[in-house]
């Protein structure tokens, strides 16, 4: 009987796990058998997508699955598939959508995995890793079941009260996202009003929002002039409007999906492999109530789409729901241009981070950040520029106070953002300030300095002092400045006047996050 059950489960493409509980509720098995037996022809518009979203139903061993989850979740995802296609078409990408592994046109093959442990092993905070490790093990044992790098993992509520679902992980991490199932998670409840309807919007909208993250999308807000017709951005606060009022993909989200593996109509062997882009020239201006950004770039992997987010402080992470955005295609082979009307901004004051994202054909994304601010409702874009830096060939590190093993100060001169200078953090913890000094090999005309951070900004240099020397021994302070908390792009510091010098010393007074350590990826100098 056990062998027969396992054979049945494998036939249904549902997960097997070592557990004493019943793996699939009887009503689910019966329904799947009837639907499987029908052998209906699949006409789903995206059935030919070579990559499909892996949909997993993960059940801790002290939690019950929710009845009819197969039908309910299938309907929700098929509706989302159509909604995405309509939005992609509006944004000029055609009716592209994510692929689903279907039994027929109304039912998805959902991988049922019985967790090895109880719900306490898989809490909301920090529990996703334990879930993912079991999902990875399942696909390692069943490699033909894995249809892409993208997973939607749905976990039944830990609360028995249907009016108060919650408990398991519910967020996106990389190409995997987590959502929750409960008794009233049903598309028929969207828009019916009352507590049941509201919760359906929150949890179904939340599922589709998190799915967006699992398909590579970032948070953003619908541009102000588009909101009256396109409503709320799904990747903004769309989980509170989904099924109630108009909820749409923004141009940036659509451009992101255009380069996601499960939206692809062609196969590749390098999905999400290493890729990088560098902006070689960048100019910014304010004209006719628009921020105009244009530039040129180089890349290690071709780029299909380029996007820009304007994110008001606080920046990034879960603080970017309010980021207005634009998307564009490449001009020629290596150029781009954005026009961002101020009429689309919600706040014309305070500090902003502008992030430019390059969407590579293999699904990877390179993002470069620039800081600017508004003064009297006018953007000050003086720092949104890329200077031609002097070659660092023949330069050397004159000295530094301390280095983490494998992260010497010489790394700041190699123009390679993957190598960094880092002061000690894994052993001796030397406090701020920290410094490194540079011998440029000869007298150089210096108008300003440029700094580039790694992606992880914890400990990035914040307030700095800049010194010059005639002999590399005695130092004179010439400038104090604060570096922007941005990654990827060069942070420029203009000197008060052009100087001629051979030696420079950079002192980190403190770091972003008030860490005892400092780090920097690259350092440069410009003369004009």
From TrEMBL:
Residues 378-525 form the F5/8 type C domain. Gene3D superfamilies: Galactose-binding domain-like. Pfam families: F5_F8_type_C. It comes from the Bacteria. Residues 1-18 form the signal peptide. Keywords: Signal. This is F5/8 type C domain-containing protein.
């Amino acid at each position: 009987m056990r062998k027969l059950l396992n054979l049945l489960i494998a036939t249904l493409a549902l997960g097997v796990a070592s557990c004493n509980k019943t793996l699939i509720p009887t009503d689910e098995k019966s329904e799947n058998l009837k639907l499987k037996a029908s052998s209906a022809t699949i006409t789903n518009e995206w059935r030919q997508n070579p990559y499909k979203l892996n949909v997993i139903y993960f059940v801790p061993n002290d939690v019950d699955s929710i009845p009819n989850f197969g039908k309910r979740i299938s309907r929700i995802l098929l509706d989302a598939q159509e909604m995405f296609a309509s939005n992609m078409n509006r944004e000029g990408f055609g009716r592209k959508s994510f692929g689903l592994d279907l039994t027929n046109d109304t039912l998805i093959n959902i991988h049922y995995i019985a967790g090895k442990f109880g719900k306490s092993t898989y809490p909301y905070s920090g529990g996703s890793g334990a879930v993912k490790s079991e999902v990875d093990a399942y696909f390692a044992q069943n490699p033909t079941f894995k249809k892409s790098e993208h997973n939607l993992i749905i976990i039944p509520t830990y609360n028995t009260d249907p009016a108060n679902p919650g408990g398991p992980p519910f967020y996106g991490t990389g190409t995997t996202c987590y959502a929750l199932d409960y008794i009233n998670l049903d598309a028929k409840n969207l828009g019916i009003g009352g507590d049941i309807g509201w919760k359906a919007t929150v949890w179904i909208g939340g599922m589709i929002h998190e799915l967006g993250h699992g398909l590579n999308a970032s948070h953003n807000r619908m541009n102000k002039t588009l909101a009256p017709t396109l409503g709320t951005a799904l990747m903004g606060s769309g989980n509170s409007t989904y099924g109630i009022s108009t909820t749409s993909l923004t141009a940036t989200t659509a451009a992101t999906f255009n380069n996601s593996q499960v939206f692809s109509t062609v196969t590749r062997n390098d999905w999400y492999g290493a890729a990088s882009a560098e902006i070689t020239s960048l100019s910014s201006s304010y004209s006719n109530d628009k921020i105009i950004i244009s530039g040129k770039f180089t890349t290690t992997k071709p780029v299909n789409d380029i996007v820009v987010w304007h994110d008001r402080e606080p920046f990034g992470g879960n603080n970017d729901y309010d980021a207005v955005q634009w998307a564009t295609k490449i001009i020629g082979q290596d150029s781009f241009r954005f026009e961002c009307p101020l009429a689309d901004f919600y706040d014309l004051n305070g500090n902003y981070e502008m992030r430019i994202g390059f969407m590579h054909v293999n699904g990877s994304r390179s993002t470069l950040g620039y800081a600017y601010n508004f003064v009297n409702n006018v953007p000050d874009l003086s720092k949104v520029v890329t200077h031609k830096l002097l070659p660092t060939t023949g330069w050397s590190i004159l000295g530094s106070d301390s280095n983490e093993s494998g992260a010497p100060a010489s790394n700041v001169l190699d123009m390679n953002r993957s190598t960094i200078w880092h002061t000690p953090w894994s052993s001796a913890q030397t406090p701020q300030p920290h410094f490194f000094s540079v011998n440029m090999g000869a007298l150089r005309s210096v108008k300003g300095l440029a700094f580039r951070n790694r992606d992880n900004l914890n400990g990035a240099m914040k307030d700095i002092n800049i010194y010059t020397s005639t002999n590399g021994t005695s130092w004179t302070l010439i400038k104090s400045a604060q570096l922007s908390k941005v990654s990827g792009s060069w942070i420029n510091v203009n000197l008060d006047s052009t100087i001629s010098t051979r030696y420079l010393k950079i002192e980190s007074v403190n770091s972003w996050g008030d860490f005892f350590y400092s780090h920097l990826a690259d350092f440069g100098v410009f003369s004009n």
